[in-house]
Amino acid sequence: MFQDRAQGGRMLAHRLSGVCVDEAVVLGITRGGVPVAREVSRLLTIPMDVLVVRRVTPADRRLTLGAVAETGEPQLRHAIHRFGPDQLVEFVRCAEAQVSREVAVYRMRHAPLPLVDRTAILVDDGVVTSATARVACRLARSRGARRVVFAAPVIPADAVAALSDLADDLPRAVTPPRATAVRDWYVDFPAVTDADVLGLLGPVDEPATAGR
């Protein structure tokens, strides 16, 4: 159990200390992964950026059907057979609209850091289905990352197996035998707002880096 996302990030930074971080960029997966990524960036002195990814869900958000990132095609899971084509189109459209809105907010102040020939350290606050993580890993590869590391304070065993073909390394603090809600691993788990993300990214036109 972690006190909050910041503590999860500090524990994750310890796990990452053995990972080669030369020419690395820390990418917080929006929005919950950003406070975790900020601690990793601060403690390991690595530049930080965000990666905008949203889950594709029905209206009640209880089921994850897939995920969509700021670039690239939506990735859907097998559970889509429960819904008709028109419903799926609407679910994807809603997720894409959320992604577009976040990109407009965050990229207006911070251009994305280049990933070509660098190590991309993707950070989230936890994993349940691995849908978001898989899309994030694919996006980092498509942007030219030489090496992709996916890190989160808690990654269940089945997600570790599901991500092993996409990530070169999967540092984590806890590996439960099965997935539970991410919030179950935190004492303090508030919603992360756009204002929180912008504050963690740092001043306008100056990517957040540790040690400043």
UniProtKB/TrEMBL annotation:
It comes from the Bacteria. The keyword Aminoacyl-tRNA synthetase does not apply. Residues 23-154 form the Phosphoribosyltransferase domain. Keywords: Glycosyltransferase, Transferase. It holds the Pfam family Pribosyltran. GO terms for molecular function: glycosyltransferase activity. SUPFAM superfamilies: PRTase-like. Gene3D superfamilies: 3.40.50.2020, PRTase-like. InterPro entries: PRTase-like, PRTase_dom. The keyword Nucleotide-binding does not apply. This is Phosphoribosyltransferase.
